[in-house]
Specification:
138 residues; 2 domains; KH_dom-like_a/b; OsmC/Ohrsf; 3 helices; three-stranded antiparallel β-sheet; GMP Synthetase, Chain A, domain 3; N-terminal domain of TfIIb; OsmC/Ohr_fam; three-stranded mixed β-sheet; 6 strands
Amino acid sequence: MQATIKWVDGVMFVGETGSGHAVVIDGPPDHGGRNMGVRPMELLLLGVGSCSSFDVVQILQKGRNNVTGCVAEVTAERVDAIPSVFSKIHLHFSVSGKGLKASAVERAVKLSAEKYCSASIMLSKAVEITHDFEVIEV
C-alpha cells in the first residue's frame, strides 16, 4: 500500500491513495486552516470505523444473514497533552435487517474486533477500544 500527501496551502493537504482516491485534509482557522477538509485524527476514526464496519457486514453476509444496513458511530477521547493521542475509542454499531439475531451481530462485532479489523487491532495496542451494538428490525 502507498499514499501521497501533497501540501496545498496553509495547513491544507490532499492525500491520494495508491488506488487513486483522494481526500482533502485541513485544519481549523485557529490552526491556520480554512476548515475545508477532514482533520488527520478524524481520518484515523474513519479508518477504524470503516474497517470494522466492512468486517461486520461481510461476516453477517457470509453467514447468510439478511443485513440491510450498518451504521458505526465512532466516538473518541484524547489526552489533554501534546501529543494529543486517543485514550479511548468506542464503536457503536446499529445493524439493521430482517430476522437478524443479536447473537449473529455480536459474533460479527467480536470477530472484527479480535481477529479481522487490522486498524482496530493495531490501535488497540495503545488505545482502549470498546464496541457495542444494537439490532434494528426492518
